Amino acid sequence: YDYVFSNLPGHGGGENLDNLVRGAYDVLNKNGRFTSVIPKMVAVEEALEKYFRRFKELKTNEDYKFLEAIK
């Protein structure tokens, strides 16, 4: 796939969150993009750094952050 979009859960964290990020990475083509919305309190950045070449925060508000990672 060229794109994977997700509304990541705000609960479960840890291994579950890592599995979701890895799953997106696994199905993406080279240079594919993973875009997600996630509660601001959930730390997904470590999992993104682990699998993806780069990622950035597209937008944030008081409750959510919108992130994009590139394979």
What would you say this structure looks like, in words?
This protein is an alpha+beta fold and 71 residues long. Helices cover 31% and strands 37% of the residues. The chain contains two helices and four strands; from the N terminus they run βαβαββ. It has a four-stranded mixed sheet with strand order 1-2-4-3, with helices on one face. A hairpin with a 3-residue loop joins strand 3 and strand 4 (64-70). The protein starts with a strand and ends with a strand.
Short description:
With 71 residues, this protein is an alpha+beta fold.
- Are there runs of 5+ residues with pLDDT below 50, and where? none
List the secondary-structure elements in sequence, H or E.
EHEHEE
Rounded mean pLDDT score: 92
Helix content: 25-40%
Structural class: alpha+beta
Task: List the topology elements.
Layout: E1 3-7, H1 13-27, E2 33-39, H2 45-51, E3 54-60, E4 64-70
Parallel strand pairs: 1-2
Antiparallel strand pairs: 2-4, 3-4
Give me some keywords for this one:
71 residues, alpha+beta, 2 helices, 4 strands, 31% helix
